[in-house]
Write a structure and sequence with these properties.
The chain has 425 residues and is α/β, with parallel strands linked by helices. It has helices at 11-22, 36-49, 59-70, 83-90, 94-100, 132-145, 187-204, 214-220, 231-238, 246-255, 283-292, 312-323, 351-362, 378-386, 407-424, and strands at 72-76, 114-118, 150-156, 162-168, 173-179, 208-209, 212-213, 221-226, 328-334, 338-340, 365-367, 390-395. The protein has an eight-stranded mixed β-sheet with strand order 3-4-8-5-9-12-10-11, sandwiched between helices. A two-stranded antiparallel ribbon has the order 1-2. Strands 6-7 form a two-stranded antiparallel ribbon. Bound molecules: zinc ion (ZN).
Length: 425
C-alpha cells in the first residue's frame, strides 16, 4: 500500500476515505483527495487504535485498517473462546464464522489453532473507482469469508493480468454473467461483485434475495461470473494505471484526434480493440460498418480488431464459454436501461419471454439491437453458436463512465435480473 498524506491523490485515497467513513470516522466526500478533513479522520482513527497520531498513512496505519478493508482476520483460538463469544467481540455473526471455517467443529475448538473471523458487514466498496487490484483483493476476501465460492481464471489480458471467474452454486443449470467488456463501463464490475457478496451473505443465513431462495438457487444452478473482462482498460479509466507508464502513453496516442475525453472516453482493451466487436458473429459486417464510420485502426472505441478473437480477453471469454454448456448468458454494459435479447433472425425459444420477465423486475425495456452495433458482440456470438438465450443488459442512464453515485439504483434495478437469470435458464 502506498504512503498517503496531505496532498496525496488517487484510488488509494478513495479506499482510505471509504474505509474511514465505513468505520464512522467522517472522512467526508470520497473524492480521492487527501485534505484536512481526511487527515483529521486518520488522526481520530490512529488515536482510537493506539498508534502514533501523525495523520500520515504509513505501514502501521494500513496494518490497522487492513482487517476492515479485507473484511476478515486470522485469529488464534484462546482458552474459553466460543464462536458466540467471538461473534460478540468482533461484531460479527456465528453463522458468518461457521461459514468461513467449514472444517472447524464449533463444539470442539482447539486452543492455538487458526481460524478466520469475518469483520464488518461488507467487503465490496460501492463508493470508489473500482480498479483491478481492488477487485482481486475483494475476490480473495470473499473467498476467505465464503469458502464455498470457486475462484479460477479464464485467461490473461494483453498486459498479462489474470482474468478471474467466480462460481456460485453447485447445481447443473449453468449460466454465465460477465461485465466490463468496455473499460469505461466498470460500474458493471461493482454490480457483479456486490451481487456475489450479497448472494453469499444471504445464502449462509438461508435467506431470500429478490424473492428467490438463495439456497435453492445454489443447489439448482451454477452462476459463473466474470466480473471484469477488460481489466487493463478498466485500470486506464479508473486512474489505476500511472500516466507515466508506457501503456498509458500508448493509449493516449491512440486516443489523439478521436475527439473523446481521455482516459474517461476509453472503451477498448489497452491496445485499442473494442472487445465487444471482436467475436465471430458476422464480424465482417461489423468491420464494414465501423470502417465506413471511420473506425479503421486501434483507438478508444469501435475498432473491431484485425480478426475475430484477435484479443486475448475475447478469446478467453470464447474458450471459457465453449468449455461450459451455459444455458443463458448476461453481458453487462452501460447505459440506457435496455435489455438487448436478439441477434439477427436467430430464433431462440423462450428468449423473448425471459427478456419480458427481466423487464418486469427491472423496469428496463426489451429492445432489438440497432443495426450499427448489432454485430460481433459476445451475446451475438453466444446466440449464433449455441442457440440459447443471451442478453446484453445496458444498465443505468447517463453518459459513460456513469458516476459511482448511481450504483444503488443500478443494483436495485438489476438484482431481480441476476437472480432470475439463473432460475429461468
Ligand atoms: Zn458497452
Amino acid at each position: 500500500m502506498p504512503l498517503l498524506k496531505i496532498g496525496s491523490r488517487g484510488i488509494y485515497v478513495q479506499l482510505l476515505q471509504s474505509t474511514l467513513n465505513k468505520l464512522g470516522y467522517g472522512a467526508g466526500t470520497v473524492d480521492g483527495i487527501f485534505g484536512t478533513r481526511t487527515e483529521n479522520a486518520v488522526k481520530r482513527f490512529q488515536r482510537s487504535v493506539g498508534i502514533t497520531v501523525d495523520g500520515v498513512v504509513g505501514k502501521n496505519t494500513w496494518n490497522a485498517l487492513m482487517p476492515y478493508i479485507d473484511g476478515y482476520i486470522n485469529y488464534t483460538v484462546k482458552s474459553g473462546d466460543t464462536f458466540w463469544k467471538l461473534a460478540q467481540t468482533f461484531g460479527t455473526s456465528v453463522n458468518a464464522i461457521i461459514a468461513a471455517n467449514p472444517n472447524v467443529d464449533p463444539n470442539n475448538l482447539q486452543v492455538g489453532s487458526e481460524i478466520i473471523i469475518p469483520i464488518g458487514n461488507a467487503v465490496v466498496p460501492t463508493d470508489i473507482s473500482y480498479s483491478y487490484d481492488i477487485m482481486m483483493s475483494n475476490i480473495n476476501s470473499l473467498k476467505r469469508r465464503y469458502p464455498f465460492l470457486k475462484v479460477s481464471t479464464i485467461g490473461k489480458s494483453v498486459s498479462g493480468k489474470d482474468i478471474p471467474v467466480v462460481v456460485i452454486g453447485s447445481g447443473s443449470k449453468k449460466v454465465c454473467y460477465n461485465a466490463s467488456h468496455h473499460a469505461n463501463e466498470w460500474i458493471t464490475s461493482v454490480l457483479l461483485m456486490k451481487f456475489i457478496e450479497n448472494f453469499c451473505r444471504s445464502y449462509i443465513d438461508d435467506g431470500i434475495l429478490a424473492g428467490q431462495s438463495t439456497r435453492k438457487l445454489f443447489e439448482n444452478s451454477s452462476i459463473h461470473i466474470v466480473p471484469m473482462v477488460n481489466p487493463d482498460g478498466v485500470d486506464l479509466v479508473t486512474g489505476a494505471l500511472s500516466p507515466d507508464s508506457q501503456e498509458y502513453r500508448n493509449a493516449e496516442n491512440l486516443s489523439r484526434g478521436s475527439g473523446l475525453p481521455f482516459p474517461s472516453g476509453w472503451k477498448a482493451n489497452i491496445r485499442g480493440v473494442d472487445l465487444n466487436l471482436n467475436y465471430p458473429a458476422e464480424w465482417d459486417e461489423a468491420r464494414r460498418i465501423k470502417f465506413e464510420q471511420g473506425f479503421t485502426k486501434p483507438g478508444p472505441r469501435d475498432y473491431v480488431g484485425p480478426s475475430p478473437f484477435s484479443e486475448p480477453e475475447s478469446r478467453a471469454m470464447g474458450e471459457y464459454t465453449r468449455n461450459n454448456d451455459f444455458a443463458l448468458t448476461l453481458a453487462y454494459h452501460t447505459q440506457g436501461e435496455i435489455i438487448f435479447w436478439k441477434f439477427l433472425n436467430y430464433n431462440v425459444p423462450g428468449a423473448y419471454d425471459i427478456a419480458l420477465r427481466f423487464s418486469e423486475v427491472s423496469g428496463y425495456s426489451p429492445e432489438i439491437t440497432p443495426i450499427n452495433s448489432g454485430y460481433a458482440g459476445y451475446k451475438d456470438w453466444f446466440i449464433q453458436d449455441f442457440g440459447k438465450p443471451g442478453y446484453t443488459i445496458e444498465a443505468g442512464r447517463g453518459s459513460n463512465p456513469l458516476p459511482i453515485s448511481q450504483f444503488p439504483e443500478i443494483y436495485k434495478d438489476n438484482i431481480g435480473i441476476l437472480m432470475l437469470g439463473a432460475v429461468l435458464a
